Each structure stands twice: as structure tokens, then as C-alpha cells.
């Protein structure tokens, strides 16, 4: 190979994260065939560092170590150094996160992994300080020790690397397909709910992440069973997140996680995916509870998304940094004196009381605004004062140095935002939100689409790499939701085309399910296939939902077979660890309990619109809505095939499995009829499964 220059090569990158490191004295290479070939040619181990632009501890490690010349000299002498934006190449990040776990370490960002020249992991960690502290060794010592070990104990290192790779191969794809008992959904619902913090909501301990996929699973359990503990767990969690410091009470939007158990102290970066999933969950729960708090948080978060996160092309940017002016959270926190100066003596006392502002502060001498001491809303006149105060403080905050925005448009995260925005727009009757979702969809299609192929990211005029299966899954789901809302066949056609490519390039034809990376990816040593959720919902779960939707919408049996095949592919894995697979179980529930609502009528007529509104007024996690003009036909396999208007009026049919309700023309009657229907069949299947299990146990005891 042609030797790569002995210098930092990140200057031509589009990724804001890589560009943050372009002036490091470390001879960084972007992940590429050339960089991997260089390691083999020089017979040097690889230092792989992955992170993202908004990551606070990535910044800290960069300032402490990667900007230090002496540390850079150590790295340049002994390693080929490769830097990866985990958002551009999630499959690489996830591969080595899992490899690190196989080595007995906990993953996270920044991810620091040492690889053999042929790309096998043999050691690593996350953040390493410049000086030994809190049990973490100094990074320079780690680098020196690894370099010495490579020289003195190479055979031992290569043996470790081979075993780690073998473990990854076994982990992703050696199980035989196994049918999942529907009763597991009820069991897992109870297990997950038992992990809820009964004081502050969320899952016990600290730090606390939103984990919206697991919370959605619990909410479905509540809607299915009406059991109080499920609903209380969700209410407690959403109330505390909505009133805690993890929420930006001035500008809207949620931070990535809270560092404490009370949801008070956020890790200040704002990620697109977190806010998309929070908007979707809050909307879903509001449909049942009508909580003014949830409506307010949806409205404010969407306002933030549209105000601060829309790119020039109409898509959504990836993230806002945690840091500004070199300090975490500086943009968001306040001293009491600053509050007093902006609000004045008349308004400041009430604001400080409600938002927990004190002279000493609640974090590093500063105040993180929160309402954990006043969870409910005050009198309307008092809330009007607080609204005025928030506006004044927001205007004052706008004069500060803003955290940097990562302008990448990512296929997967945009798909999540589009779906959430479109549904929230329908529920809260905000057509401007739906229009923003539509603009973002076509912006992604224009920038990242290439026929039936999607790219992962768009930034600085360039699209890079084929999307992972997660990108195809989330954009296909967004397309089907927009199809549901608009009845525009173009969205259905997009989903069909993308899912055919998924089947061609990502399917595990031997054992079922889908790999994260395409078969065309030549720079990925081990292809990931997993059922477990991470920061975002598991992509196999989303794909199963999309396939199930397509089966219901098109009547094509191949989609039903593919969705069922993907479920059973993970049957054994789900039996071992069901609580980590909430998204896949949500999708499984979608297969069993989807409620198909067919409305026939002129979509512009008040009667038809009233029926549509009745549907969106009900919390229906497994909803498939089809609006047909009179005379339009459904597939023959659809239970409402051949049905039409009742008495010449706009008419609705609620269908489950192979049967449909009698025709409904009254919106109130439709609304009332939807309350139990979505989960009736699943509950029946679960009861049957439990009864069968009890019979088998009784038979075994009798023997």
C-alpha cells in the first residue's frame, strides 16, 4: 500500500466530532480501508477511539490527552490511531462496545479500544484521565503498558483477541429459532415495573436514562390490564422527568440523562433521538391521561426542535453539545444574582421558590432550574407570571455563548423525529408539526436517498456510508406513519422499497432476523445481530413492527412471514434475558394485538374528520389507521374487505385478527369502542398460553 502521511488526517472529514480532533498532534486516521491496511503493513496495533461531538467526557479526554504532545508521541510511535464518529458508523461502535463488555469492561463514550493489526479487540476502556484518579489509571501509563505488552507478550494478546472475536460470533447468531410464548410479555411487564424507583420514577439507581422503549412497554401493559402499578410507574417517571433538571425549563427539550437519582442534574447534551422518543411517549400517555404537564412538555419540546434543530435543508440536526466556553452546562445554569437581575424584585421571589433557586445553588455553586419541589401547576395567574419570567430568562440566555450544534442529518434519528412529530401533530391538532415532519422526510430522502438505498448521514454537502438497518427501520416506520396520516401512496412505496433492500442486504437467511450492517460493508469484521435495546430502540424490534404494518396494509403474506421469522429468530435469546428486549416485545405485541381501524368517507368532510379525531384521541400503541374514499378497495386478506358506508355516512370499522366491529358512524361510539379492543386478543392469547403451561405442569406432577 501507499504509505499514509505521518500526520493527522481528519481535516477532510465532514463529521463535527472528527473535525474537533483535526488539530490534535495525534496522527489520527478516519476509519477506512487504507487505515486498516496501514496497521497490517506496519504490524502495529490500533488505538480505536469513538465518540460524538456533544460528548462532555470526549472533550475532557481530548483536552487532557489527545492535545498533549508527549501523549501523542507515545501513540504515534506505537499505534495506528483511528477516530470514529459513533453516529456516522454505529455498527463499528456497537461492535467494539460489545467487545469491551466481553473483556469484562463497561462500555460508554469516549470508547477507547486497542485492536490487533487485523482489527480484533484485546483491551480498552472508556475515559482514561491524564493523571491516575478514582481508580482509573493514567492514559499515558495505559498506552505505555499496552505497547510493551504488544512487544513482550504478543502471543498472549492475540489469543485474547481471537477469543473475544469468537465470543462475538457466538453472541450474534448461533441460536436456533424458537417460538416465544406470548405469556412472556406479561411476565416481563411485571419484572420491568418492579425495577421502577418508587420515589423518583425511572429505573433504580444513578445515573438515570429515559429508557423510553422500556417505559413504552410498561405503558402498554397498563393499557392492556388497567393495573394501577403500571400506570403509576409511568406517571411517576414522566412527572419527575418533566419537572426535573433533565428538562430545559426555559428552552424546551430533554438532556441525555441525569447523573443523580432525582432527575435533577443532567448530563447537559441534548440528543435528537432522546427528544423524539420523549415526544412520542408523552403524546401516547397524554392521549389517555390528558395531563396538562405532558401537553406542555410536548409543545415546548417540539418548539425547541423546530426553533433550534432544523437544518437549512429541513432535516433535523443530531445534537447540541453539553459544553460551551469549555465548561459543561455553562449555558444552562444560573446564579441567584443573575436571576434577580433579570427578573427584578417583583417576579424573582416566586420564580426562585418554584424553580429551586438558592444562594448556594444545587450544582457546583450554580442553579439548575427545576420544579421537583412543586410538581403540579399553580394558579393560572401565578403560572402567567412564571411564563413571563421564563421568556425573560430565555432572552437573557440567548446572549450567552451557545453550545455547538452537530449539524449531521442522520437517517435513523431523523426517522424517529419525523414519526414523533407527525403523530404529535395529529394528536394535538397541530398541522404545522405534521408539515415539518413531511419536510424533514423529503429532505432526508433527497440528501440520503439513492433509489432503494439510504445513506447514514449527511453533513457539509456530503452523504456518507450506507445506512445501518436501524436507519432503514426508522425511516420506513416514519414513512408508514406519514402514509397513515396523509394516505399518500408515495410513503408506502418508499417503505416497501427500503424494506426490500433490507431483506436483500441485511437479512440473516440462515437463522432469521437482521444484521445491523449491510452485506456490502467490507470494513466490518463481525456483523452485529441483536435483539437488545441500547440508547435507541432495538432495530430488529422496529423492523418487525414495520413488517407487521406492511403485512396489514398490503395484504402481502411475505411481510407476515418475515416479521414472524424475525421474532422466532430471537426466541432463545429472549428467554435468557427478556427484560433487555422491550422494543422487540413491543413489536411482537404489535403482531398479536394490532387494531386495524378503517374509516370510509371523504377525508375532507367534517364527518370523516370527526371519526379520525376520535381515533387520535385514544392511546393506541398498536394502531393501524386506514382512511378510504368510498369505492376504494382493501386487500382481500383484510377483514374489512368489501365493507362500505353505513347509511351514506362516513363509517368506521375496528378490526382485530379476522373480525371487525359493526359499522360505526358516531365518533363518540368509536372512541368508546376503542378502549379495550387493541389488547383483547393478546390478553386472550396470554391467558391460553398460561393455561397450557399450567396443564403441562400438572401433567408432569401427576407423572
CATH class of the domain at 10-171, named: Alpha Beta
Q: pLDDT under 50 segments (min length 5)?
A: none
Second CATH tier, the architecture of the domain at 10-171:
3-Layer(aba) Sandwich
Determine the N-to-C terminus distance: 70 Å
Proportion of residues in helical segments: 40-55%
Tell me the structural class.
alpha+beta
Binned strand content: 5-15%
CATH topology of the domain at 10-171: the name is: Glutaredoxin
Helix and strand layout, with pairings?
Layout: H1 16-20, E1 28-30, H2 33-42, E2 46-51, H3 56-66, H4 69-78, E3 80-85, H5 90-102, E4 111-115, E5 121-125, H6 139-152, H7 154-171, H8 183-194, H9 212-225, H10 228-243, E6 257-258, E7 266-267, E8 270-271, H11 272-289, H12 292-308, E9 319-320, E10 323-324, E11 327-328, H13 336-354, H14 380-397, E12 405-406, E13 409-410, H15 411-427, H16 431-448, E14 449-450, E15 453-459, E16 462-466, H17 469-486, H18 489-505, H19 539-554, H20 557-569, H21 571-576, H22 582-593, E17 595-600, H23 606-616, E18 623-628, E19 651-656, E20 659-660, H24 667-673, H25 677-702
Parallel strand pairs: 1-3, 2-3, 17-18
Antiparallel strand pairs: 2-4, 4-5, 6-7, 8-9, 9-12, 10-11, 13-15, 14-15, 15-16, 17-19, 19-20
Helix pairs in contact: 4-6, 5-7, 8-9, 8-25, 9-10, 9-11, 9-22, 11-12, 11-15, 13-14, 15-16, 15-17, 17-18, 17-19, 18-19, 19-20, 19-22, 23-24
Amino acid at each position: 500500500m501507499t504509505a499514509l502521511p505521518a500526520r493527522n488526517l481528519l481535516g477532510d472529514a465532514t463529521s463535527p466530532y472528527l473535525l474537533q480532533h483535526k488539530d490534535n498532534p495525534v496522527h489520527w486516521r478516519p476509519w477506512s480501508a487504507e487505515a486498516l491496511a496501514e496497521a497490517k503493513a506496519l504490524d502495529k496495533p490500533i488505538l480505536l477511539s469513538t465518540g460524538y461531538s456533544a460528548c462532555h467526557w470526549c472533550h475532557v479526554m481530548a483536552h487532557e490527552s489527545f492535545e498533549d504532545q508527549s501523549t501523542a508521541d507515545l501513540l504515534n510511535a506505537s499505534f495506528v490511531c483511528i477516530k470514529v464518529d459513533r453516529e456516522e458508523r454505529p455498527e463499528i461502535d456497537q461492535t467494539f462496545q460489545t467487545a469491551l463488555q466481553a473483556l469484562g469492561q463497561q462500555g460508554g463514550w469516549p470508547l477507547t479500544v486497542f485492536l490487533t493489526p487485523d482489527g480484533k479487540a484485546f483491551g480498552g476502556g472508556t475515559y482514561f484521565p491524564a493523571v491516575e484518579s478514582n481508580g482509573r489509571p493514567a492514559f499515558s501509563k495505559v498506552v505505555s503498558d499496552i505497547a510493551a505488552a504488544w512487544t513482550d507478550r504478543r502471543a498472549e494478546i492475540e489469543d485474547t483477541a481471537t477469543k473475544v472475536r469468537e465470543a462475538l460470533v457466538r453472541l450474534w447468531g448461533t441460536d436456533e429459532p424458537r417460538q416465544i410464548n406470548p405469556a412472556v410479555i406479561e411476565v416481563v411487564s411485571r419484572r420491568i415495573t418492579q425495577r421502577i424507583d418508587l420515589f423518583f420514577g425511572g429505573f433504580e439507581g444513578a445515573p438515570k436514562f429515559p429508557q423510553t422503549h422500556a417505559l413504552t412497554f410498561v405503558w402498554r401493559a397498563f393499557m392492556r390490564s388497567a393495573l394501577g402499578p403500571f400506570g403509576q410507574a409511568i406517571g411517576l417517571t414522566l412527572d419527575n422527568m418533566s419537572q426535573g433538571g433533565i428538562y430545559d425549563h426555559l428552552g424546551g427539550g430533554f438532556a441525555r440523562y441525569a447523573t443523580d437519582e432525582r432527575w435533577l442534574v443532567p448530563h447537559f447534551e441534548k440528543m435528537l433521538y432522546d427528544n423524539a422518543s420523549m415526544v412520542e411517549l408523552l403524546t401516547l400517555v397524554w392521549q389517555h391521561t390528558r395531563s396538562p404537564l405532558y401537553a406542555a412538555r410536548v409543545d415546548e419540546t417540539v418548539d425547541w426542535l423546530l426553533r433550534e434543530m432544523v437544518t437549512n435543508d429541513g432535516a433535523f440536526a443530531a445534537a447540541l453539545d453539553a459544553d460551551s466556553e469549555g465548561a459543561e452546562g455553562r449555558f444552562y445554569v444560573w446564579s441567584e444574582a443573575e436571576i434577580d437581575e433579570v427578573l427584578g424584585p417583583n417576579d424573582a421571589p416566586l420564580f426562585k421558590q418554584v424553580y429551586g433557586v438558592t444562594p448556594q445553588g444545587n450544582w457546583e455553586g450554580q442553579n439548575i432550574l427545576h420544579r421537583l419541589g412543586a410538581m403540579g401547576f399553580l394558579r393560572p395567574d401565578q403560572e402567567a407570571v412564571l411564563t413571563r419570567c421564563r421568556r425573560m430568562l430565555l432572552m437573557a440566555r440567548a446572549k450567552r455563548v451557545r453550545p455547538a450544534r452537530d449539524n449531521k442529518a442522520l437517517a435513523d434519528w431523523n426517522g424517529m423525529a419525523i414519526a414523533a412529530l407527525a403523530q404529535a401533530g395529529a394528536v394535538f391538532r397541530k398541522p404545522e408539526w405534521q408539515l415539518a415532519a413531511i419536510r424533514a422526510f423529503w429532505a432526508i430522502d433527497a440528501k440520503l436517498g439513492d433509489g432503494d438505498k439510504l445513506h447514514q448521514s449527511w453533513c457539509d454537502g456530503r452523504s456518507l456510508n450506507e445506512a445501518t438497518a436501524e436507519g432503514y427501520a426508522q425511516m420506513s416506520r416514519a414513512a408508514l406513519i406519514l402514509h397513515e396520516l396523509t394516505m399518500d401512496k408515495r410513503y408506502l412505496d418508499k417503505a416497501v422499497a427500503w424494506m426490500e433492500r433490507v431483506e436483500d442486504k441485511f437479512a440473516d437467511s440462515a437463522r432469521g432476523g437482521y444484521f445491523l450492517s449491510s452485506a456490502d460493508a467490507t470494513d466490518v469484521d463481525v456483523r452485529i445481530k441483536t435483539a437488545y435495546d441500547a440508547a435507541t430502540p432495538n432495530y430488529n424490534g422496529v423492523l418487525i413492527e414495520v413488517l407487521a404494518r406492511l403485512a396489514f396494509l398490503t395484504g402481502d403474506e411475505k411481510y407476515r412471514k418475515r416479521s414472524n421469522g424475525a421474532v422466532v429468530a430471537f426466541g432463545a435469546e429472549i428467554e435468557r434475558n427478556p427484560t433487555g428486549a422491550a422494543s422487540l416485545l413491543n413489536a411482537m405485541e404489535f403482531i398479536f394485538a394490532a387494531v386495524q381501524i378503517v374509516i370510509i368517507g371523504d377525508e375532507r368532510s367534517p364527518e370523516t374528520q370527526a371519526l379520525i379525531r376520535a381515533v387520535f384521541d385514544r392511546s393506541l400503541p398498536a394502531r393501524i389507521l386506514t382512511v378510504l374514499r368510498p369505492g376504494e378497495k382493501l386487500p382481500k386478506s383484510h377483514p374489512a374487505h368489501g365493507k362500505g358506508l353505513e347509511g351514506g355516512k362516513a363509517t368506521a370499522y375496528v378490526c382485530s385478527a379476522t373480525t371487525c366491529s359493526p359499522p360505526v358512524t358516531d365518533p363518540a361510539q368509536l372512541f368508546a369502542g376503542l378502549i379495550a379492543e387493541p389488547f383483547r386478543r393478546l390478553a386472550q392469547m396470554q391467558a391460553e398460553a398460561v393455561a397450557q403451561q399450567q396443564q403441562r405442569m400438572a401433567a408432569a406432577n401427576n407423572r
